[in-house]
Design goal:
- By secondary structure, this protein is α+β, with helices and mostly antiparallel strands.
- It folds into 2 domains: about 1-170 and about 285-300, Murine Class I Major Histocompatibility Complex, H2-DB, Chain A, domain 1; about 180-260, Immunoglobulin-like.
- The protein has helices at about 45-50, 55-80, 135-145, 145-170, 170-175, and strands at about 1-10, 20-25, 30-35, 40-45, 90-100, 105-115, 115-120, 125-130, 180-190, 190-200, 205-215, 215, 225, 230, 235-245, 250-255, 265, 275, 285-300.
- It has a 9-stranded mixed sheet with strand order 4-3-2-1-19-5-6-7-8. Strands 9, 10, 13, 14 and 15 form a 5-stranded antiparallel sheet that branches. A 5-stranded antiparallel sheet has the order 12-11-16-17-18, with no helix packed on it.
- The longest helix is centred in the first third of the chain and has 28 residues, at about 55-80.
- The chain is globular and about 60 Å long.
- Keywords: Disulfide bond, Glycoprotein, Immunity, Membrane, MHC I, Signal, Transmembrane, Transmembrane helix.
């Protein structure tokens, strides 16, 4: 399971898109939400509501309100440092921890401005990696303030403690396994065939869909869609590839998922139960907790917006310091990328912004 949280901030909000939003996830399940319109952090699953006392939500509400203000401050810092004024600007962050099958712990923290890397924590070396000269200023400030040490302690201790609690609270839901229904379709045009492999109704979220030609993975030729949630709590995803119509029999779609004892192979026209491939289902991450922050701003050409930082985390809220001039940025789940405004439908439990 994966636990994840992320805030969003807009200087010019619109209906349905509040100025600041913080959403928490566990393995793709939305467990909590805070936004600047309601000014409250609330549970979004029955098992969080049943297992966490009201005092917890009161504390988290206060934390989110504080983070919201820091976010404005840090976004303002970034806009000034990069000499940006009008238009939309974004500030993102994410951090988290994983419990691995071998008993190890994996933790990360990263920040970005306008979808570009800003700072990345090197937990083992107790340093930050700066993406450019502007971020280098923040790197020096953060390291002088001892932030790498605080983050290391948080990611390896507090984060893991809360992850274990969430996994226990939502055990019945998080440990369920629902097999994907897979269908391969084709559309021919001028001798070229577009083959699409779609997997529906699977849980948990993590899935690998690859196109093979004569048994070899065609990674460079494959286009992948986002893994997105269905209304029933399951997910769907797809991958497509172009091929010559005369070579269609050379292609198969391979699907790997925790619900399948082994990867399945599917050909055009097949649906349902897969032919078993000769490889074992991989994956080393047993449980993980991630927190993502996202800040977006549009100052309409004015010089006032805000600075941003941090995020709203389940538990302690992370080792956030007070806002310092020139500080704070964004993390994507392992690979950071800007999410277009209005595209906040889901937050991947592992991988990247989609």
């Amino acid at each position: 399971p994966v636990s994840l949280g992320w805030p969003i901030l807009l200087t010019h909000p619109s209906p349905g898109l509040p100025a600041f939003v913080a959403v928490g996830y566990v393995d793709g399940e939305t467990i909590s939400r805070y936004d600047s319109e309601t000014q409250r952090k609330v549970p979004r699953t029955g098992w969080m509501k049943a297992n966490v006392e009201q005092q917890y939500w009161d504390r988290q509400t206060e934390t989110c309100q504080n983070r919201q203000q820091i976010f404005f401050m840090n976004l303002d810092m970034a806009q000034k440092r990069y000499n940006h004024s009008g238009g939309y600007h974004t500030w993102q962050s994410m951090y988290g921890c994983d419990l691995l099958e071998d008993g190890g712990i994996w933790g990360f923290y990263q920040e970005a401005y306008n979808g570009r890397d800003f700072l990345t924590l090197d937990k083992d070396m107790l340093t930050f990696t700066a993406a450019d000269a502007a971020a280098e200023i923040t790197k020096r400030e953060r390291e002088a303030a001892g932030e790498p040490e605080r983050w290391k302690h948080y990611l390896e201790n507090t984060c893991v403690e809360w992850l274990r609690k969430y996994v226990e609270y939502g055990k019945a839901t998080l440990e369920r396994r629902e097999r994907p229904t897979v269908r391969v379709s084709g559309k021919e045009s001028h001798g070229l065939l577009t083959l699409s492999c779609r997997a529906h109704g699977f849980y948990p979220r993590s899935i690998a869909i690859n196109w093979l030609r004569k048994g070899r993975v065609q990674a460079q030729e494959t286009k992948w869609g986002s893994t997105v949630p269905n209304s029933d709590g399951t997910y769907h995803a797809w991958a497509s590839i172009e091929a010559f119509a005369t070579e269609k029999d050379e292609y198969q779609c391979r699907v790997e998922h925790a619900s399948l004892p082994e990867p399945g192979l599917f050909s055009w026209g097949e649906r349902g139960r897969p032919e078993v491939a000769e490889c074992r289902l991989g994956g080393s991450s047993v449980a993980g907790t991630h927190c993502r922050s996202f800040l977006a701003a549009h100052d309409g050409g004015s010089s006032s917006s805000g600075t941003g930082k941090g995020s709203c985390w389940e538990g302690s809220g992370g080792p956030w310091p007070s806002a310092l001039p020139g500080q704070h940025p964004v993390r994507d789940c392992r690979t950071l990328r800007l999410v277009p405004l209005g595209a906040f439908a889901h937050c991947p439990g592992s991988g990247r912004w989609d």
